[in-house]
Inverse folding.
């Protein structure tokens, strides 16, 4: 999950879309976006025209709902910044997904390409490592993870990556809280609403990126 305070689960999902047309006229399976909570899913859907969104639940407890035959799995939602270079409303496109236990990090698919597409749409975007934890990170733990190089903490991406197997994975988090902007503070409501507006704007870039990914124009064609 993100650092969002809403815990209600929306377990609805839609099937994998047919995807873009390749040069020989055949359909190529497209990506699926994964969101922890219904409010995140509803926000990101606003900017999507052909990409389905699966609600995987808090800590991705319903990752079994994800399809096995799509071009990529994209985790999208809110997150908590670990360093001061990211402020509420900024977007982190993960270049790798880590866990605090030190397991091997999972590299993300074409993160710089995805970040560039979002920057084209006027979003404030940075790239860097994301860490998946089992709880909301705050205080000293935030500083420890930041010292290890992670830039945002959340609760689903590593679970989704484990489910993905050989499928390419991407992760996009809109910052809600961070150093100097604690989660449990009256200002979180306004930050959450602002982050939701940002999340609703990432869809067009995701879909442009996905077309380039399945065509192999990023240099690493989807497997």
């Amino acid at each position: 999950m993100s650092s969002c305070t809403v815990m209600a689960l929306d377990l609805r999902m839609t099937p994998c879309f047919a995807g873009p047309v390749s040069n020989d006229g055949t359909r190529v399976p497209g990506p699926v976006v994964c969101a922890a909570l219904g409010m995140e899913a509803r926000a990101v859907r606003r900017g999507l025209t052909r990409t389905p969104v699966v609600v995987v639940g808090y800590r991705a407890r319903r990752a079994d709902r994800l399809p096995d035959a799509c071009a990529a799995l994209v985790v999208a939602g809110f997150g908590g910044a670990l360093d001061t270079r990211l402020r509420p409303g900024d977007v982190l496109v993960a270049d790798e997904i880590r866990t605090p236990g030190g397991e091997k990090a999972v590299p993300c698919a074409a993160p710089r390409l995805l970040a560039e597409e979002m920057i084209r749409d006027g979003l404030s975007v940075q790239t860097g490592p994301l860490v998946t934890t089992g709880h909301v990170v705050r205080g000293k733990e935030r500083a420890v993870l930041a010292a290890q190089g992670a830039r945002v903490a959340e609760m689903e991406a590593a679970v989704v990556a484990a489910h993905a197997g050989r499928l390419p994975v991407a992760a996009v988090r809109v910052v809600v809280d961070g150093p100097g902007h604690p989660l449990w503070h009256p200002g979180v409501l306004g930050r959450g609403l602002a982050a939701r507006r940002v999340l609703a704007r990432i869809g067009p870039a995701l879909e442009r990126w996905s077309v380039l990914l399945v065509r192999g124009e990023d240099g690493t064609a989807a497997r």
Notes: The two ends are 27 Å apart (CA to CA). Residues 32-215 form a domain with the Rossmann fold fold (CATH 3.40.50.1580). The longest helix spans residues 203-215.
